Amino acid sequence: xxxxxxxxxxxxxxxxxxxxTSDDVPNEPLPEVPLKAKELLNISYxxxxxxxxxxxxxxxxxxxxxxxxxVHGGGWTSGxxxxxxxxxxxxxxxxxDIAVVNMNYRLADENNLPYPMQTNDITSVVxxxxxxxxxxxxxxxxxxxxxxxxxxxxxxxxxxxxxxxKVKMVCSVVGPTNLLDGVYQNSDNEILQGLVQxxxxxxxxxxxxxxxxxxxxxxxxxxxxxxGLDPLVPISQGIDLDGKLTELEVEHQFTLxxxxxxxxxxxxxxxxxxxxxxxxxxxx
Length: 284
Known about the structure:
Mean pLDDT: 91
Strand order of the largest sheet: 1-2-4-3-5-6-7-8
Shape: globular
Radius of gyration: 27 Å
Low-confidence stretches: 1-25
Order of helices and strands: HEEEHEHHEHEHHHHEHEH
Strand content: 15-25%
CATH topology: Rossmann fold
Number of strands: 8
Largest sheet: 8 strands, mixed
Helix content: 40-55%
């Protein structure tokens, strides 16, 4: 009798199970699968072959993921995003939650002035990122790290052209800040003269293209690194911007390596890396 009763209960249970429709089973949402890290190389943002960037997307990114844009140097006439590979690798390893953009821009020549062509390219990259936010799963807050001419462009765009105030920090390593500086304008050094002459002789344009002369109290936090023996960027370029940011009460850090030139290695590069990482973590 016990076995018959057991079978009756079993068949009743099975009948209930198979009698249920799909509507009777609660629909539970599928668990979200974390996004994997992704590298997208040579994304075009314009018609010119130099208008391309590499995008390194972190794992588990969200629509709030911050973006760090790297801008190479080369005197506005040369250079390539591959020159920033060391910085790119360091930042990806030390700040794995940030999306890194390593961009190329159109290079200046006798027929194409650096300004506003190159800052226009930065604007195009920022717009391209914004238009593809949903696809990339990234946020809109930005940071910049620029070297030499790239430092100049990063400062200038952050100070004068960030109309939406999305830049949360900017770094310049040996970037020129004032094209009207007497050290440039009155120099007998043909190299220094040539750098500034690329922008033309119109003082209004030179002023517009000088971060020092465009910065105001709304500028983002800035971190600056300069060499005291730099043959291309006079020491006044860093010191004057440091003074201006202090006057405007803009949060910033200024490091002058007295015995370094237009770049450095060893202990001072390690010092730069540690300070830069901490600054990005605090502000971006």
